[in-house]
TrEMBL record:
The gene is LOC139186842. It comes from the Eukaryota. Keywords: Coiled coil. This is Ankyrin repeat domain-containing protein 26-like. Residues 31-96 form a coiled coil.
Amino acid sequence: MTRRKLNEYKNGELSFHGDLKANQTEMDIQINMLKHKIDDLTAELESASSKDLHLDAKNQVLREELLSMKGMQKKCEKLEKNKKKLAQEVVHLRSHIEMNMIEHSEVEQYKREIEERARQDLVEKLKYKQHLRRI
């Protein structure tokens, strides 16, 4: 049968009419399937593209938040350093105040002692004057 069809083909007598209709129907089915596949893939692409845009926007927001947080972290670190320096200064000043209070206390004690001696000297002088008046 194949030889006959080859001979018909050589002679131009080959008839594909029935075969062509079947092939055309098969091709139409395949074309429709491919069109549906293209439509599905196009929809997937649009969905993926939309998700990509959404993720890009979200990524940008997250980058801005991260940048802001890094700035805040640097400020916090700077504030912590300042806090430590101030705490050290407070300790130093308290120590200085305590030393001044001790010095002040010593000065007050010395002042009282001098005043007491001065009173005693006055009392002695008054006694001496009274004694001289009696004599």
